[in-house]
Amino acid sequence: GPYYDIYEATGPNPAASNAVRQKWYFFDSGTHLLVKARYLVKRGGADVAVESQYSNWTTQNGQKFPGQIVRTENGTAVFTFKVTQGAVGPAAKDGLFPGH
Predict the structure, then answer these.
(1) Per-residue pLDDT, 91
(2) Burial, 35: exposed, middle or buried (Cβ in 10 Å; 0-12, 13-18, 19+)?
(3) CB within 8 A of 20, min separation 6: which ones?
(4) N or C, which end of the chain has less CB nearby within 10 Å?
(5) What is the pLDDT of residue 72?
(6) Tens-binned pLDDT, residue by residue, of the chain (100 aa)
(7) Sign of CA dihedral 74, 67, 28, 21
(8) Is 0.85 topped by the overall pTM?
(9) Rounded CA gap, 36 and 5, in Å?
(10) The pLDDT value given to residue 86
(11) What spatial distance separates the first Cα and last Cα of the chain, rounded to whole Å?
C-alpha cells in the first residue's frame, strides 16, 4: 500500500475558452477518504502540475473533514491550511438531501 481508487473527471476549463481540464481524484481504498487531487494548468505557456493533498482526517458529529490541506505546484508547497480548532454542528434536516 497505500492503495487508491482513482477517478478522472473532464470538464470545461473556465479560465480558457473551448478548453477542457482533466482532474484526477485519489481516494484511499480502505477509508474511502480523499487523499489528493491533481490537474495541470497553463501558466505563461508552460504546464504547471497542481496537487492538493488532504490529511489528518477527523470525525465530529458524524462529519469527516481534513485537518490539513497542502497545495503544491510542480512539487513545491505554495499553500498550507491547518485546522487547529473547529466545531461541526449536527446535520440539518433541511430536505435538500432526501433520506439523510
Answers:
(1) 74
(2) buried
(3) 10, 11, 12, 13
(4) N
(5) 98
(6) 789 999 999 988 776 666 778 999 999 999 999 999 999 988 888 889 999 999 999 998 888 999 999 999 999 999 999 998 888 887 777 887 776 5
(7) negative
(8) no
(9) 11
(10) 82
(11) 33
The residues, ordered by sequence, that sit 6+ positions from 70 with a Cβ below 8 Å of its Cβ are 52, 53, 55, 77, 79, 80, 81
- Give CA separation, 32 vs 39, 52, 84, 85, in Å: 20, 17, 24, 24
Q: Report the alpha-carbon distance of residue 13 to residue 85 in Å, rounded.
A: 35
Please give the grid coordinates belonging to residue 32. Answer: 474511502
Record the cell numbers describing residue 98, joined without a space. 432526501
